[in-house]
Design brief:
mainly alpha
Length: about 110
């Protein structure tokens, strides 16, 4: 009888999620990684968000300065940020927890 030569491990969902999130952040970091671009977005977005404007309204009012890719990148980072109010989960993780990943695919 042959023995399996593969290393046996136990699957850890939280560790897998941490690794996946790290990989996602790492892969997206090169899109707008220059200090100038990040500074430009911060100068536009932070004061307006602090005033209570929605991301949609900011985009509509600043179409000449913001591209949709800027907004998409920012929202991706916001949705991956873990929050105490969500029991340490990101909005994406909380949504998947309550509604299931299959709901996202339908």
């Amino acid at each position: 009888m042959k023995k399996c030569a593969l290393t046996k491990t136990i699957y850890d969902a939280l560790e897998a999620q941490r690794k996946a999130t790290a990989k996602i952040l790492e892969s997206r970091s090169g899109i707008l990684s220059t200090e100038g671009e990040i500074s430009r977005l911060n100068e536009i977005l932070v004061p307006l968000v602090k005033q209570g404007q929605s991301i949609h309204q900011i985009y509509l009012n600043n179409r000449d300065e913001l591209m949709q890719a800027d907004i998409d990148l920012m929202m991706d980072h916001i949705n991956l940020y873990r929050r105490k109010k969500l029991n340490g989960k990101s909005p994406y993780e909380a949504f998947c927890f309550y509604y299931g990943k299959n709901w996202l695919r339908s």
